[in-house]
Amino acid sequence: MDLKDILAISLPSLSVLVGILLNRSDTNRLDARLTTEVSRITAEIADLKKDIRDLRNDIASFRSDQREFYRTLGQHEVRIENLEKK
Fold it and tell me: Is the pLDDT of residue 1 over 70?
């Protein structure tokens, strides 16, 4: 095989491969798809942050209710002890 044969085969193949790699429509479609996915993921992260914030508020409310319950329970125990003493 001489240089002419190698060039006759490799140059067209190489130009086809470069054309495929540099096809702008594929790149634009990929860019649009990535933009859509990034937007979707960003929205999901925002939703997760809101859910976490809501859970933290629920936990804080639960702790407050629990403190109030035990405070009230302590008051009732004192009243029961006072009644038992009488």
Answer: no
Q: Express each pLDDT in 59-80 by its tens digit.
A: 999 999 998 988 888 888 888 8
Rounded distance, CA 7 to CA 15, Å?
12
Rounded to two decimals, the pTM is 0.53
Residue among 80, 83, 75 nearest 67 (CA): 75
> Among positive and negative, which fits the CA dihedral 76, 79, 85, 86?
negative
Residue 37's identity, in one-letter code, is E
Residue 42 CB coordination number (10 Å): 10
Average pLDDT of the chain, as a whole number: 88
DSSP 8-state assignment for residue 23: -
**Residue found under tokens 């319950």:** 69
